[in-house]
Every structure is written in C-alpha cells, then in structure tokens.
User: Fold this.
Amino acid sequence: MTATLLKEASPPPVAPADRDRKRRARRRARVIALAFVLPALLLLGALVVYPVLFSVGRSFFDASGDRFVGGDNYTEMFRDPATLKAVRNTAIWVVVAPTLLTGLGLVLAVLVEKIRWATAFKLLLFMPMAVSFLAAGIIFRLAYDEDPEKGVLNAAAVSVHDAFKDASSYPNARARDGQGLTRAADGSYRTTVTASPGDTVGLGLVGVRAEDLPGGARPAYPAATGKASADELRGVVYLDFTRGGGGEQGKVDRTESGLPEMRVEAVRDGAAVASATTAADGSFRFQGLDAGSYTVRLPASNFAPPYEGVSWLGPALVTPAIIGAYLWIWTGFAMVLIGAGLAALPRDALEAARMDGANEWQIFRRITVPLLGPVLTVVFVTLVINVMKVFDLVYIIAPGPVQEDATVLATQMWLVSFGGGNNQGLGSALGVLLLLLVIPAMVFNVRRFRGSQR
Assistant:
C-alpha cells in the first residue's frame, strides 16, 4: 500500500527532449540578458574599471611616466605637508559634515510633520539640490566676500556690530607734522603745548574728504575766535583744509569746517580729568577745571578703522565656511530620506507611548531615533562617501592664497596632477588613497541595502 502511494506521488519522468528544450530556453535567456547588460558593462569598464586600473599602475611611475619608482609616490605622499593637511581637512569633513547633516535632517524631518505647509517647506529645503556645485560655490564665494558692500554675511555682521557700537566718523583723519599735535603709540593725538583754563585751543586735522563730513557740520571760525571764561578751557577741532586752495596751515580760516562728534579729553598727570564731544562747529569746552596746565587729547577711538566684518575665507574659517555651503545644499536630501523612513514607522508604537504618559522628547529619544537607526545609518554613510569626493565647493569658494588651508584629498589630487604640480604619478597615488578610503563605506552601504531587501 505504501509503495503504491509513493509510486503515485512521484513526479513523472522528464523526457530528454523537454530537458533539452528547457536548457536551451535558459541559455537563450542568459544570452538575451547579457546582450542588454553588455553596453552598460562596456561603459562601466571604460569609465570606471579602466581608469582605476590605469591610476593604480600610474602611481608606481614618476612624474614623466617613464621610470618605475615603486612605492616612492606613496612615501612622498605622506611626507608632503600639503597632503597631510588635505588628509586632516578630509577627516574634519568626514566627521563634521555627515554628523551635522544627519542631525539637521532628523530634526527637520520630525518638525516638518507637525506644520501645515509641510510639502512647501520640504520643497524649499530641497531646492538647493537642484543647484550645481559650481553655481553654489559662486553664490557662497560672493556671500562670504569680506567687502560688506558685496558679501551679505559681512553686511549683516557690520550692521549688527554698528547697532551696538558706534563707528568712528573719521578713520582717515590725521594731524600735520609740526602743527601742534603729536601722535601717541596707542593712535591718539595730543597737544604738544599745554593749556590752562581761560585758553582756547585749535586742533587742526586733515585726511577727511569734504563729502565725508557729517551733514550738520558748520564753519569752525566763529568758535575759534570766541573768548573762554576764566574757569573753562575751550577749543575747536576743525578740518585744516580750504577748498580751492588758500588759507594758512595751523589757523582756522573762515570757510574751514568744524569736525562734529569728535571726543576730546583734558589730561593731567597722565589721566583724563574731563571729556567732551565736539558740537556741529567742532567746538568743545571743559568747565570747572582746577587751575594748572592740561594737555588736550583726541582719543584713538576717533580714528579707529570701521568694522569690516569677519574674514570668512581666511585661513582659520575657510573650512567651516565651505562646510556651511555644503550643509545648505545637502540638508534637504537628508531631511527627505529621513522623512521617508519616519513616515514608515509603526504609528501604534508612538500612540501607545503617548497613552502611557511619555512626552514628545521621550518618544523622540527612546522610540523614534532607535526605529530610524537603519535609515540614519544609510544616510550617514552615503554622506560620508559623498564628502570624501567633495571638490567643486572647495576649489571655487577658497581663494588662491588660502587654497592650501582648505584643500582636501580630491582637490589636492587635482592640484598635484594638473593644477601646477604636473606630477600624475603622485596624483594617481592620491587617487588610489581616496579610493581605498571610499571602498569600506561603499561596501557597508551595499550590505545595508541588501539586508533591508531581505
């Protein structure tokens, strides 16, 4: 009975003709698949495999490509200070940029879910991805310009600074030699002859353009000819220059303007005992002074250069400034990817946590972030791979004098190979180093994708 059932359950034998037909069908399917894949494989080999193999081989030859030098290029690579700086800057990029982008993307993805115009907000943040790195580099090169008339960031910095601290009205003003004023080491001016209560002092300056004078400035002559009372020391600060020529140096002429809003101090025994601010006609007065001799001083704050903002593209800030431009471009990418993972989270777990009394911060920290762990990892590793290859922003934004301070491995490879170094052997070694650094992150990402598909 059992033998009969087994015999009945066994599949019928396959005829040799059917077996050959199926084998031919499978072979035909493989040939068709290979025919479709072959153009892509040829293109991949021409654009990726061949350049990689050629660069590996080229890295063992000298700059001319004629003499085999073995590992000398790799040894030289780690002796060159510029290359070591490029490795350091690349490490800063790898640590800072992906971390900030992943954190910003996570925070924005969570917050966007709670606003009405979520789609418009996502579109606004994702729009920089449509801008090429070349265009973005030019935009931020202008934004970081040190001239407040051109750079929007320095224009904002100067506006905020000047709102809390008054700027000097006469940064270019100076005294003529031998005209009764001498300049101290701190940048201030003081009279060479002392004065006493009852005296009138004239302090003439040059270097101020007539069109730069404050709108309310008036002629200084009436104030200079006034008489001081016995208990006051008075004087006038004026522009010792007459339009059209004429006049006498060191004396107030009738058409010469006073310099208003100039701070003046009366100094005795090295200490300021009284201070005043000049009026529209440049006049000032010190009242209630004790009898004796005083030196009149114009403090250095009157001649301080105007605040010019921050040197964003200087050696100290050029790398953080370029990373800021990179964040502007890629934050939308991180937000959208993390937002897609956030939309797939099981809502019942979040609702259960709320019913158990958990607040939003606890839900975010203990439920949302752990569940988003795989997505955050993929985003972080993807950004690490992208950061290692960054070239356009660094090359365009960093000015020539600080190019070496901002260089990363990709830019250093180009500079060594084509940007003046003309050493393709050393440049190829840098390319191989960059490839070796990228491969582990790529392998990790591929395994993550395969794991998620299973």
Q: What stands out?
A: The chain has a mean pLDDT of 85.
